[in-house]
């Protein structure tokens, strides 16, 4: 009895609800483009991919839980090889070379790379001789994460690469110093403030801040040197912002950031997508225009509405109500995954489940943020909702693996890890 | 807080309101003959924002018969003039082309049609009365009260179309569609719950007799002038002709751009509605009115005679008269149009002891005229009405100095010359007032609005003149003598007792204007008429025969074509357009 795999029903139900919501949304977004029933067009394909996912899920549940831990590194290596392969033989779609054609289907290895990376991170961190306080281990773990990022950036898909930053959250849960998060967030703030006010104004503000700070704490001599040092670093970093912005980011990325910060109005170019998305969601009102009744959705005004901008369909046709339900389902799902992670008795399992939760969290924040104009447009899908075989398959397999690991937690009673 | 800003923006983008134009009311003449009806015009529209995709431009251009450059130009104009999610690409597509394009419209994403109602006409007649439609302009849009009109709508601009616009137009319907980013129709918005069915306009029945109108236009062809005929008992306008005239169909929405410019260039001014806009000195047609004022005010009695040596002496000035017998009665003064008689009458009037000054006397005289509808607008429902000329006493004060003028200075007013101007409409209204023996109803062209019981109240008010009924018989006897043994005896109609008065109006710019006013039959007046033919000569030679022919046509339709075939032919065939205008007109209408 105890050693039988028991799938977490709550997670499964949340997963299925999101899947159902996704198929309905894809159907609605394509119903005017010749899809007369759920089984036609993109919603039909999406259904098929979920079918495949369940099949793979069943296989995953037939496998022994230890299988994953043992084969972790092989998964990682296999997927890194695929990322390399895609650079060599991939076909180019929409400016990025990130697809491998297999028969009539195209696979996007970058979506699966997260899965592989999660294995590697979990496997490495769960080794008994590894500690995040050890600089060498930290560098190795960074290497594990940055390798796929770099390969994906080379493909020209910066958005998908950014997703790997979600592993920082995992590391933080596993004892990484919060300083990394604080520094990261501070860097983003300095970045935004510099773009907003210009280097000169920003630097003066920092210096004034320093003087004011010193005036209040001049008795505390110890604080003086570090605060001067921090101010200097901040100003230096802000000087580098201009360089990063102009020389490292591509032009369309620069524009997207400027549009998000309201520094650039370009409703017909860079800002068109977000503007239309905001209009669609905004016009949905409290309860929406009704399923299949979204005028913006029907009129195909929003590019990429089945994929990256699928949230617009929910926002327009379901209004604030269904948008909230969708986000709530995601939040509940993420919280449930965190719960599953915490009750895991093996470190490998815990880290792996944290990984999937963090990746979903990251996708959710960025994707919903960009459709309502809070984030710059970064082309990553809304998990389980957005149309796309690779994304559906990768997330499903990822989730099923996590659930498989959780299902066998009782076998780990005697484990020496906690 | 909920804000519907984005809802509104979204609707602006993805909803298209299609206006369903109602049938505009039809217009009939007094005998229920259809005069004006509707004809659809098709406007090729572009959905905005304009995103043309996969359009076979060359086949589209060849279908519309335009060049690629013209296509691009129209596209630019359409972009600039976008309004409420749509823009006109090409207006007034002919019916056949409409069918061809409509068939292939699915190939041209972003284009669609809007159907509006233009006017067409059963008769090449009555343009000045009927008026025309036009697109609403900025001031129409700004001044409208109930926010009914939108850019591109048609509105009555002139004539009946304009006066009864609210009755004729009906109510527009609305249909709401979803459109996609190419402007392609995606079905009814909310299953048509917000749609409004159009309501057709009310039909109008006019007082105009379209046959009489056409006949009058025939008489005035190749002439400059007007005919106004009124039914005295009601003030209903039976015919209102201003010549030269234009074909109303040339001024409808589809054709106006082709013809309007030419009509504006024509020196004989076909657009100008002479019948209500042009003031002419009444000339001798004024004499019956002067006699009535003299009778009422005590300047003369029905038995007063004045001697006429062939002139009226005023100090060292002489006012010439025509040859007629020396002693002149009131009746003969009208029949033979004696100037001397009216100079004397006017002198008696102005020097009446009850008036303390010339100014007071003049003001009294003026108020008599005003009671006949002279010197001010009558408030008729025909466009372009002018009030005529009737000066205040202050005008003469300014000219001659306060209290430094008397009857002698203004004596020519007594026989209808000088600072006096009647429109043909006013002249006909005077004839109508005399026929009624002292009152008139404001002339109007509206007989009935179908579906409504009443016509505007102002057309039902009886206006009494300041001359009492008993004074009219003597004057009417004189006017009867005009057609029996007087100046208009040559064209009198057997079997109808017509009272008339000729006038030859001095014209400083060319030949005299020929004028005539009349009513008939005397026993029971059914028609009062005024005719003015510009630069034609004596009243007796053109205006009187025309008036008589119209009276005959109206009162004795059984004698049609006419008892006076030769007279009718002479009238119709005469070309009285002044030489100075002819060659220019020829090149305007018949040149390349």
In short:
The complex is a heterodimer of chains A (418) and B (592). Chain A is mainly alpha-helical.
Fold topology:
The complex is a heterodimer of chains A (418) and B (592).
Chain A: H1 9-30, H2 41-62, H3 65-89, E1 91-93, E2 96-102, E3 105-107, H4 109-125, H5 135-155, H6 158-162, H7 166-173, H8 179-197, H9 199-216, H10 224-248, H11 251-260, H12 272-284, H13 295-298, H14 310-343, H15 347-371, H16 389-407
Antiparallel strand pairs in A: 1-2, 2-3
Helix pairs in contact in A: 1-2, 1-14, 2-16, 3-4, 3-5, 4-5, 4-15, 4-16, 7-15, 8-9, 8-10, 9-10, 12-14, 14-15, 15-16
Chain B: H1 5-14, E1 15-20, E2 27-28, E3 34-47, H2 57-64, H3 68-80, E4 86-93, H4 95-103, E5 111-121, H5 127-130, E6 133-135, H6 138-143, E7 154-156, H7 159-163, H8 165-169, E8 173-179, E9 185-188, E10 204-206, H9 210-219, E11 225-231, E12 236-243, H10 256-265, H11 274-277, H12 287-297, E13 306-307, E14 311-314, E15 317-320, E16 327-328, H13 330-335, H14 339-350, H15 358-371, E17 389-390, H16 393-400, E18 420-421, H17 424-435, E19 439-441, E20 446-449, E21 462-464, H18 472-484, E22 499-505, E23 513-520, E24 527-533, H19 543-555, H20 565-573, H21 579-590
Helix pairs in contact in B: 9-19, 12-14
Overview of the molecule:
The complex is a heterodimer of chains A (418) and B (592). Chain A is mainly α and 418 residues long. Chain A has helices at residues 9-30, 41-62, 65-89, 109-125, 135-155, 158-162, 166-173, 179-197, 199-216, 224-248, 251-260, 272-284, 295-298, 310-343, 347-371, 389-407, and strands at residues 91-93, 96-102, 105-107. In chain A, α3 crosses α5 (135-155), α4 runs antiparallel to α5 and α12 (272-284) crosses α14 (310-343). Chain B is built from 21 helices and 24 strands. In chain B, α9 (210-219) runs antiparallel to α19 (543-555) and α12 (287-297) runs parallel beside α14 (339-350). The termini of chain B are far apart. The mean pLDDT of chain B is 90. Chains A and B meet through α12 and α13 of A and α1 of B.
